[in-house]
Amino acid sequence: MEEKLNKIKQDAIERINSSKLLDEIEEIRVNILGRKGLLTQILRSLGELAPELRNTIGKKSNEIKKIIEDAIDSKKSELAKSGFSEIASNEWIDVTLNPETSIREIKSGFLHPISKTQYEIEDILTSMGFQILDGPEPETEYYNFEALNIPKFHPARDLQDTFWTEDGNLMRTHTSAIQIRGMEKMTPPFRIMAPGRVFRYEATDASHEHTFYQVEGMMVDKDISVSHLIYVMEQVLKGIFKREIKVRLRPAYYPFVEPGFDLDFNCMICEGKGCRVCKHTGWIEFLGCGLVHPNVLRAGNIDPEIWSGFAFGMGLNRLIMMQNGINDIRHFMSGDIRFIHQF
Ligand code: DAH
Hints:
Mean pLDDT: 90
Number of strands: 9
Bound molecules: 3,4-dihydroxyphenylalanine
Distance between the termini: 89 Å
Strand content: 15-25%
Largest sheet: 7 strands, mixed
Order of helices and strands: HHHHHHEEHHEHEEHEEEHEHH
Number of helices: 13
């Protein structure tokens, strides 16, 4: 009997030590100490033993029971601990970290200020019936100059020197080239607008850049006059600045319009009194415009005896600089993320 007890103890301890799961331990416990367990049966049958054996076997059985119970308890807590440490090493989170500073902020994207203003102007003009056109950045001499009434040796070409390709094409110096492409496609009456990137061979400084953005507009109909032009320009400015804006025209020379103007708007920083932004004139230069030159209409296969039109071309960079107090046009092309993140 004693041998049997020793065997039970030995087997139990071996199995307990080698087990890796809490379920296994529980199974061992049930097998030995459970209601029908090996040791339980022995303890229950003590009464059948001879009195002298009953004592020693009883004592021994209880000792073994205690040893096995202890072994089960310590193995259980060992397994529980290693289970925690496994979870801790695989799935840890550092609860002491400050979420304000340590968790990366999720940044959503946003529009570049140029795109934002461009889309605003597109919305305003399309709401007045202007159709949006696109054109190529590399242009032919014909579309960029010739058809816009700027012949080969005309001095106006010098004002807009640019980057030429070896096969005689150029990077467009203005979006006005799209006027011609537009007229070729459309039949009057029509209203078109064309946003885009343009290029100049410039000595760059705080207010000059070799690559910048313009929006071109053109309306062709019967009996178009300067008052139509002024009205549309006032609507564009009102849409951008969300308030009533005064404009004025100054005569200016652009070969593709006659008469041609520079259009200024009333400086809203000083309300026209004069400040640094408007160079103490009370007015801010906004865009070039005028009534489309008959030669340009003809280049677009439109009869100037029947049709007339106005056109305008505005630079986006300066407008955005004024809106946001940006003091150097070169920021736009700098690729400096700190600049972009301010908008
Ligand atoms: N293309 C001119 C420039 O880049 C701007 C301009 C002036 C466009 C008069 C026009 C216009 O359509 O009528 O300086």
